[in-house]
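Got a spare moment? Tell me how you read both lines of this record:
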Amino acid sequence: QVQLVESGGGLVQAGGSLRLSCAVSGRAFSRYGWFRQTPGKDREFVAAIRWYTMYTDYADSVLGRFTISRDNAKNTVYLQMNSLKPEDTAIYYCAASQAVVGRTNYDYWGQGTQVTVSS
C-alpha cells in the first residue's frame, strides 16, 4: 500500500524558514512533487524532483527561496522553505508520479500539512 505522509508544517513569521518532509512507503516512484492550495483556489505546483537524476523544477514564485531534495536511505522527500512570505500560506501536499516528466501528472497524494506565515 502506497503512503505519502507529510510533516513539518506550522506557524512562522515572515522571513522565517520551515522544512517539510514527505515519508514515502509502499513502492518507489520516478518523480516527487510538492503542491500547495488555499481556499477557493486550484492546487498550485511548487517544486518537483526526479528521484534518480535529482533533476529539480520550481515554480517561479518560489525559485531561489525553496529547495526540494530527497534522502534515498530514508525514502523521504524534503521541501526547505526560506524567506517565507504571507502569500506562501497554504496547505502543502506531497505527490508521487510514475512518469519521469510533467508537472501535473501525479498518481498518489499525501494528506497535506498546513503552513501559515504571519506578517
The mean pLDDT is 95. The two ends are 40 Å apart (CA to CA). Residues 46 and 62 are 7 Å apart (CA to CA).
